[in-house]
Amino acid sequence: MSQTFQQSVITEFRANAEKVGGPFAGADLLLLTTTGARSGKPHTTPLGYVRDGRRLLVVASNLGAPAHPDWYRNLLAHPAVRVELGDEEFESLAVPAEGARRDELFARVVAEAPGYAEYQDATDRVLPVVVLELPDPDAVTPPVTSLADKLVEVHTWLRGQLRHAHDETEAYFAERAGHGGAGEPPAPGIGLQIRQRCLAFCQALEFHHTAEDGHMFPTMEGYHPHLRDVFDRLREEHRSIGAVQSALADLLADAAIAEPDRFRAELARMTEELTAHLDYEEEHILPLLAEVPWPPAAA
């Protein structure tokens, strides 16, 4: 798909709440915005999708070409993506399925869109199936009108990713414990899932801390010099938490061979350290941000 044609599809999609004409008339389309693996810039791509419960499935088919499409390489480097679906727009975590789960989901896709089977037949590579989770319809999202609200929103997302990492590793340990057959237990089907979640968490936390250290804290310290000790402590914690992020990534990468009780204890320790930092920041910083409007007023 040429850049000019792709941009025309994006423009028509946004103008007509997901409905486009031409070769995509009647097709289920979404817009996926990824962050460039090398450039760091946003890239938007129109993609076909198949619904599977509370998930959207997209296939990195590249029309059966021998190489993965750019958007797939982007999401492996930056798992947090933005999805436009009709008049909805939401953040999601892009997780490629693995092994038997990938095969099951690909069959689900082919049942609705048989053309993907032809793309698979045209190439030697296994076409990745990427899962995009829809927002929880029962989740209550408070309005964000101040910088304090925005900080809480970011912290809530970070805490949620830690909970998901706990849940996913527990699911794997339960599957491993239930393996009663001969030979080695099945490989975890959550390797990429945990990798993507951990990578998204670490990237978001690093970006959050860089913004605080580079912009928010210096400005706030100028207005509140009596809180210098608080800002100094938070900066020091940011440095130490960088090491915790790295250790967390290493821990989750070793879930397949880990001893469950030791793994749980180490994950709990790291989670406690990370959430204690968020708690301390909220206790001392939120009151100072309650009157700062978000989004920022235009200059």
TrEMBL record:
SUPFAM superfamilies named in the record: FMN-binding split barrel
UniProt xrefs under Gene3D superfamilies: Electron Transport, Fmn-binding Protein, Chain A, nmb1532 protein domain like
A single MF term (Gene Ontology): oxidoreductase activity
Gene Ontology cellular component list: plasma membrane
PANTHER family assigned: F420H(2)-DEPENDENT QUINONE REDUCTASE RV1261C
Family: Belongs to the F420H(2)-dependent quinone reductase family.
Protein name, entry field: Hemerythrin HHE cation binding domain-containing protein
Source organism of the structure: Streptomyces filamentosus NRRL 15998
